[in-house]
Input
Amino acid sequence: MSDSHILRNDADVRAVVDNVCERGDIALPELDLLLRTDDRPSVEYLHAKAREVAQSVYGKQVYMRGLIEFSSHCRNNCNYCGLRRANRGLPRYRLTDEVILQCCRQGYECGMRTFVLQSGEDAYYTDERLCRLVGRIRAEFPDCAITLSVGERPRESYRALRDAGADRYLLRHETADRHHYGVLHPGEMSFDRRMQCLHDLRDLGYQVGAGFMTGSPGQTTATLFSDLQFIKSFKPEMCGIGPFIATRNTPFAQEPSGTVEMTLRLLSIIRLLHPHVLLPATTALGSLNPFGRELGIKAGANVVMPNLSPEVNRRQYNIYDGKICLGDDITHCRSCLEQRIRSTGYELVVARGDFK
Ligand code: SF4
Output
């Protein structure tokens, strides 16, 4: 029996899943099959295998990251993002250090031991300002991890922030395919610079988070294959995968959004290729399906990211349209998430949730 025959039969999808799991690698035709098959039991098998692998490393624990969206100003113009600078209709804000610290205090009360400080690429945040903020959080919460998600900066800036107390850094690579990067971003942005930043962060000792959207314009099975190869070789400690969601006032406003189904399959595949990765069930997943985050956990994810930003600002941080949990206070969010996670047979834990 030839390989091509094997890969055309749904009955053999399970064998492919086993094979991918065993090798910790995937070939392009195997990826194609796993993304295309409509054989439900096989897809369930893929998710079950991913759960098994996740549990072998992290047990049935799900970690919380308290997200603080502290500035919606951005100098960039990414084609998919509602915060892009050309979106003049969006009211912009910056939180003061005091408000940010207050968000951390509320999150800490609710059991969060990781704070994710996220913003657009905002030039107001010089190294001096950002280091001062990180230093204040570090001093007040010595037992917590501080994650930054503030975009591309010079290596020296990453170094200063690391010295100030930041532990982790999220910078989605967006796509590992150079041409596709050019579809998603304006010409002024550089694929090479993005990759260089990721390597700088790694060199400086951060736990690094990469990631990409599923179903973004121009994405193909081949570009996804490049993403998976990148994840396999770079081995980010975290990997954020969420569906592309078409957003008004962006060049992609009329494009079809990505799907929950495709995202779940990719979460599972990534878990098989990189068993130790910290994998969030993203809010974007929950925005497309009321049970998206639960499905994400059942597909092998092990992190959730409740929003600690003040309620008045959440609507203004409009990376994409239709975002959920815009009006819920953090105590409500925490108990809602706790119930949701428990319903999947997992447990939300109070822990930094470092990479193992
Ligand atoms: S994705 Fe990030 S860098 Fe790009 S426009 Fe949005 S906030 Fe700015």
About this structure: Residues 36 and 262 are 9 Å apart (CA to CA). The pocket of iron/sulfur cluster is lined by residues 74, 76, 78, 81, 83-84, 120-121, 151 (CB under 6 Å).
